[in-house]
Amino acid sequence: MTLYTRLKMTLSIIVSTFNIRDLLRDCLNSLEKAKPAMGKAGYTFEVIVSDNGSDDTDEMMKKYFPKMKYRRNGNIGFAAGNNIVRNLCAGEYILMLNADTTVDENTLPESLNYMEKHKDVGAMTCKIVMTDGMLDRDARRSFPTPWIAFTHMSKLDRLFPTSKLFARYWVGYLSPDQESEADVIEGAFCLIPKKLMDKIDWYDEDYFLNGEDIDLCWKIWKEGYKIMYVPHIKISHYKGAAKGKEQKPGVKVNVDLATKRKVLIAGADAMKIFYTKHYKKKYPAVMTGAVLSGIWVMKQIRLFKFNLTGKI
């Protein structure tokens, strides 16, 4: 592309964080290292850290990133944590980026180049690579219709991971290296034009954690835009750190049992919220009763396992 200096900020990156100080520092350092490539491409960016009540992040931000926009909230959840800083965003594009990720030096300019060339795309994500080198399967998904949700919750998609019939939730029948249109992309890396974000009114705050990305993509899809998975661009993801799951060896993560329980409940509740909002009127009452009953049973099973093991 032609090099030029924009009159407006190109990109606002929102990093929502909760009790993963060291991973957040790694994430922000990777963004700092991306500045030369962004400048060379003629882009500018800002970072806004939205802290949902972490115990130990204030001092780190003051010491290492004193000029970065930083807002400390209560533990208001992922959706509200992103929405609360919307008025601080000056960029033409918004990137929602998880605090437990790191970006490559060319991730940001290549993503913006893609969006600039494809004006019919309302949102894009990249190849999200986990610590084991595998694709984070949540990077691209299908909308959870009753059938797709059933195959996922019953783990049929794990038994037949490449089946077009059973593996539609994680789109397992497509290569992780294949660029493709998706129903849903993950909030860990989600790039959207700010005008579109404002039009669809950002995240639905009925979701505390999980489900908000599915709902956001539903609204983008309803506006008639494509949602794209672009695997030649990538980031690393230490998935689940803020939920008390996987973490980077030697890196402090502080997630207590009460928070883990809240995360577990929010995940199950998100399924109920999404179905009730978007599918309840599409299916007969018998189907709705079966779906909501299935969600309730799954929630109780997960709570039972959590009470025994303390793990989610």
Q: Note poorly predicted spans.
A: 1-5
Q: Order of strands across the biggest sheet? A: 3-2-1-4-10
Helix content: 25-40%
**CATH third-level topology:** Spore Coat Polysaccharide Biosynthesis Protein SpsA, Chain A
Total number of helical segments? 11
Characteristics:
38% helix, alpha/beta, 312 residues, four-stranded mixed sheet, Spore Coat Polysaccharide Biosynthesis Protein SpsA, Chain A
Topology of this structure?
Elements: E1 11-17, H1 21-33, H2 35-40, E2 45-51, H3 58-64, E3 69-72, H4 78-83, E4 93-98, E5 101-103, H5 107-117, E6 121-130, E7 140-141, H6 146-153, H7 156-159, E8 180-181, E9 184-185, E10 189-193, H8 194-199, H9 212-222, E11 226-237, H10 257-278, H11 285-309
Parallel strand pairs: 1-2, 1-4, 2-3, 6-11
Antiparallel strand pairs: 4-10, 5-11, 7-9, 8-11
Provide a descriptive summary of the structure in words.
It is built from 11 helices and 11 strands. It is an alpha/beta fold. It has a single domain (11-254), classed as Spore Coat Polysaccharide Biosynthesis Protein SpsA, Chain A (Alpha-Beta Complex), CATH 3.90.550.10. The strands form 3 sheets. Strands 3-2-1-4-10 form a 5-stranded mixed sheet. Strands 5, 6, 8 and 11 form a 4-stranded mixed sheet that branches. Strands 7-9 form a two-stranded antiparallel sheet. Helix 10 (257-278) runs antiparallel to helix 11 (285-309). It is globular and about 55 Å long.
Would you summarize the structure shown here?
The protein has 312 residues and is an alpha/beta fold. The chain is 38% helix and 19% strand.
